[in-house]
Amino acid sequence: MNKNAIFSMKTKLRGIPPPVKAAGGSCSEAASGLEIRPGGMLVQKRTSDANHNSNPKIKVRVKYGSSHHEIALSPEATFGELKKLLAGPTGLRPQDQKLVFKDKERDSRAFLDVCGVKDGSKIVLLEDDLSIERRFLESRRTAKMETASKEIAAVRFEVDRLAKQVMNVEMEINGGKKVVEAVLLNLIELLMIELIKLDGVAADGDVKLERRMQVKRVQKYIETLDVLKLRNSGLRKAALQHKIFTGQMPTTHENQQEVQRKQLGNLGGRANPGAVIVTTKWQTF
C-alpha cells in the first residue's frame, strides 16, 4: 500500500474529505484550507477570520444591588475574567466578588459556556461576607484615626498659644525682670492638662507619630518653665539683698530694735511718772 492510499484512509476516518491532487502538484499542496500539525495530524487551517467567526462575543447582564451592568465578553471566558471586568464599574475587587448564576455561586475558574451562560444571561453579583466585615473594620479604623487627628490638632493649637506665653516669660526673666511665680505655675498646669489629653488619644501610624511629637514638645516647654522658675526665684532673692544693702529695707535686727522702740514709746505715753512714793521704811540711827 502506497503513501497516498494510507493518507486517503486517514482522512476518511477523521471525516476530512480527501484532497484532490492537482496537476504537477502534491496532495498537501492541493489540500485547500488544511494544515499539518507537528505531530503529523492533518487539520483544518486556522485563520483570524475563522477564529473571529467561531468565537463571537456575548453580552451578559449583571445585577449588583439596584444597578445593572451589561458586559460583553467571550463565552469561553471564565467567571474570574468576568469579575475583572466588573471591578471597574462596581468598585469591588475581584477577590471580594461572588457571582451567582442559576441560584448557584460559580467558581472563578469555571467557564461561562460550560456553566450554560449564553447571550443575554442574567448573573447576580454579591459582595463577599468577609469583604463586608473587612470594609466595616476599615471604616471604623479610618473614623477613629480622623477623630484622633482632630484631637491632636486641637492640642497643637492650644500648645502654640501657650508657647508664645512661655517665650514672653523667658525673655523677661533672661532680661533680668522678675515675674510673678503664679504666672509660671499656671503655665505649667495648663501644659500638664494638654499632656493628659495627648495621653488619652489612641492612634496608629502617622497619627501616632504626630502625637509623640506633640508630647515631646509639651514636655520641653514644661522643663523650660521649671528652669525659669528657679532662675526667677534667684532674681527675687537678689532683689531682696539689693534692698537690704542699699538701705531700702531694714535687716531683721533693725526691725526688732524698731519694734522695741515703738513699744517703749507707747508705754511712756500711757504712764505718768508723777511723784515718787517711798514704801520702804529705813531705820534711823
UniProtKB/TrEMBL annotation:
PROSITE patterns: BAG, UBIQUITIN_2
Domain of life from the UniProt record: Eukaryota
Residues covered by the Ubiquitin-like domain: 56-126
Keyword Chaperone (UniProt): yes
Name of the protein: BAG family molecular chaperone regulator 1
An example Gene Ontology CC term for this record: cytoplasm
GO MF annotations, alphabetized: adenyl-nucleotide exchange factor activity; protein-folding chaperone binding
Keywords associated with the record: Chaperone
Function, as annotated: Co-chaperone that regulates diverse cellular pathways, such as programmed cell death and stress responses.
Gene Ontology annotations of biological process type: protein stabilization
Gene assigned in the entry: LOC105158741
Organism (species): Sesamum indicum
BAG domain residues: 151-229
Keyword RNA-binding: no
InterPro entries, per database record: BAG_chaperone_regulator, BAG_dom_sf, BAG_domain, Ubiquitin-like_dom, Ubiquitin-like_domsf
